[in-house]
Design a protein that fits this description.
Elements (H helix, E strand, L loop, with lengths): L1 E6 L5 E7 L2 E8 L10 E10 L4 E5 L6 E4 L10 H4 L5 E6 L10 E3 L4 E2 L3 E4 L6 E3 L5 H14 L5 E4 L8 H19 L7 E4 L3 H8 L6 E6 L2 H10 L7 E3 L11 H8 L3 E3 L5 E6 L4 E6 L10 H22 L3 E6 L6 H15 L6 E6 L5 E5 L6 H5 L9 H14 L5 E6 L1 H10 L2 H4 L5 E6 L6 E7 L1 H11 L8
Parallel strand pairs: 1-14, 6-8, 11-12, 14-15, 18-19, 22-23
Antiparallel strand pairs: 1-2, 2-3, 4-5, 4-7, 4-13, 5-6, 7-8, 9-10, 10-12, 16-17, 17-18, 19-21, 20-21, 22-24
Cofactor: Mg(2+)
Pfam families: RNase_E_G
Protein name: Ribonuclease G
């Protein structure tokens, strides 16, 4: 069972999932950071590409969306027979735009609920979870065949097995009414017809209703609205003025933990998590464990504990794409298989689709996780700047000064660490080769060094006196 905590009063809305007393998931929704995924648009066909068998759809956004033939339920032949240039078509974004490419679209629109998904263009396709009891499944099938038209369809989720059939029917009718209201808006220009706030609505729907123990929210009006929208969760949705006080750590402390690449575990093992453009790499580090040398059985025990923490961190940080994990080496194929099996078991707890492929020839465990949004570290931090080391900066300055022979004197600002590094690296014989008179001041606000002024010796001395600099001789 899980507890969902929602902080919606601030401009940045936050959602947290607590499982077994620990935070396993954290999402944020910021003003202006609009997400297209799941939104429904009235689109206009701009172009049908015969080679790609796909269409470019104007959806009222900066970039046109991309609609493949297989995403059009009523298309049986060439896409050009189903869509014409200038035609209005209702579509739904299935992923966010990437780079210069527009959002991938589908014409098989989905309106999701807790137990069902209504599909107005599914052409009579009814998908019911195999996990439902035979009697309940038959009852729902019979009702759906009578209730729905041949163009409609729906998905009945596994969670529907835990509620009465009337609850399922009530939700489907509500979604259907919502769709009809959307159709009757009478809009002709490309625009958004429907979107759902990622917090709290979509965040609550992400989890099976039967696994939600409690939903705490800090806004009374939003609490009432959610009770109306999700009546089966009504008794579990509760207004709480200070939701942050119900968390194991504050939101600020949680963010500080998430951006740290180093995760220390209680058994002396640590994880180092590094995101790159191509993939995320996680290293299991055991250097703090006494003895350092493990038998295969000991290594497996440590790796099993690390795997649990790794899965938690992947969810918490919302890491996605290719993920490589460098566990402690075991050099035993059976032990590696046990570890892979444990990892596959752990990822089943993640609502986001994750595939564990196994060990590579280099002994790295590889997995992929579906990308639904940017990782939290990338949202919370600035891109890392690449700077030269102090040693490199000292030698670069020396080389630059040897080439600048036209000036008699220079004013140079340097970081204090740069000054210390120079004294350690360069000897007097090297310093004597510098042709200029140098006036050096220390400034902790700059990185490395900065040549501020160059000219005649008299001009530089006058500038130093006028600016009130305290200067040293660097070389």
């Amino acid at each position: 069972m899980r507890k969902i905590v929602l902080h919606t009063k601030a401009a940045e809305k936050s959602g947290v999932v607590i499982e077994n007393g620990e935070i396993h998931e954290y999402v944020i929704d910021r003003p202006g950071a609009e997400k297209l995924t799941g939104s429904i648009f009235l689109g206009k066909v701009e172009r049908v590409d015969q080679g790609l068998d796909a269409a470019f759809i104007d959806i009222g956004q900066e970039r046109s969306g991309f609609l493949r033939k297989e995403m059009v339920p009523w298309c049986e032949g060439k896409l050009s027979t189903a869509l014409n240039i200038g035609q209005r078509v209702i579509v739904q974004a299935i992923k966010e735009p990437v780079g210069n490419k527009g959002a991938p679209l589908t014409a098989n629109v989905n309106l999701p609920g807790l137990y069902t998904v209504y599909q107005p263009f599914a052409q009579g396709k009814l998908s019911i979870s195999r996990k439902l009891e035979v009697e309940k499944k038959a009852e729902l099938e019979s009702w759906l065949e009578k209730e729905f038209e041949s163009s409609e369809g729906c998905i009945i989720r596994t969670a529907a097995g835990d509620v009465a059939p009337d609850t399922v029917r009530e939700e489907l009718r509500g979604l259907r009414d919502e769709w009809k209201t959307m159709e009757q808006k009478g809009i002709n220009q490309p625009c958004s017809l429907w979107s759902e706030p990622s917090i709290p609505d979509a965040f609550i729907r992400k989890f099976p209703a039967t696994t939600i123990q409690e939903v705490l929210i800090d806004d009374a009006n939003t609490s009432r609205r959610l009770k109306e929208k999700f009546p089966s969760l009504g008794k579990r949705i509760r207004w709480e003025s200070d939701v942050e006080g119900k968390l194991p750590v504050s939101f600020s402390r949680l963010q500080e933990q998430i951006i740290q690449p180093l995760v220390e575990m209680n058994n002396g093992v640590s994880l180092v998590i590094e995101e790159t453009e191509a993939m995320t790499v996680i290293d299991v580090n055991s250097h703090k464990v006494k003895g350092r040398s493990f038998s295969n059985s000991q290594a497996l025990d440590v790796n099993m504990l690390a795997a649990k923490e790794i899965q938690k961190q992947i969810r918490l940080r919302n890491l996605s794409g290719i993920i490589l994990i460098d566990f402690i080496s075991m050099k035993n194929e059976n032990k590696e298989k046990q570890l892979v099996s444990e990892m596959r078991k752990l990822v089943k707890e993640d609502p986001t689709k994750t595939n564990v492929f196994g060990m590579t020839r280099l002994g790295l465990l590889e997995l992929t996780r579906k990308r639904e949004s940017a990782s939290l570290p990338s949202l919370l931090t600035n891109p890392k700047e690449v700077n030269f080391t102090d040693e490199t900066a000292v030698y670069r300055l020396e080389r630059e000064l040897l080439q600048r022979r036209e000036a008699e004197a220079l004013i140079i600002a340097v970081h204090p660490a740069f000054m210390d590094c120079k004294k350690r690296l360069l000897s007097e014989p090297i310093s004597s080769k510098i042709p200029q008179e140098l006036f050096v001041r220390q400034d902790a606000d700059i990185s490395g060094y900065q040549i501020e002024l160059e000219g005649s010796l008299d001009m530089i001395r006058e500038a130093v006196q006028r600016r009130g600099y305290h200067v040293d001789n660097l070389f």
